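Extended Data, record Glyoxalase
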Amino acid sequence: MKPRFSLATVVVDCPDAQALAGFYQALLGWEVKLSEADWVLLRNPEGGTGLSFQSEPDYRPPVWPELPAEQQKMLHLDIRVDDLDEAEAYAVALGAVRAAWQPQDDVRVLLAPAGHPFCLFLT
């Protein structure tokens, strides 16, 4: 019999868990459920999979777009929004940076303060 599996959280490595969690908490409006010096767990108040942040002393931010011999991204977050311009402006005000390369007109690629790319897309 197959055991039950349930994805609890996605863990994002970064140089400072507290700082990056603060960025995503403000961006998404999620709640801090657990906070330690090098680990923070955020949860959507509406339920679902959580988002955690773990400090890694040797963290190297990925490059976007990917380049040979450079640190590759391992994942990115897709975040649904109802207005691309407003959502981008809000994310930038929180510390995100618009990526120089934008592969699609209907998606905005931004870089979180630790360099992780994330995409904003319309609902």
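Summary. The first helix runs from residue 17 to 28.
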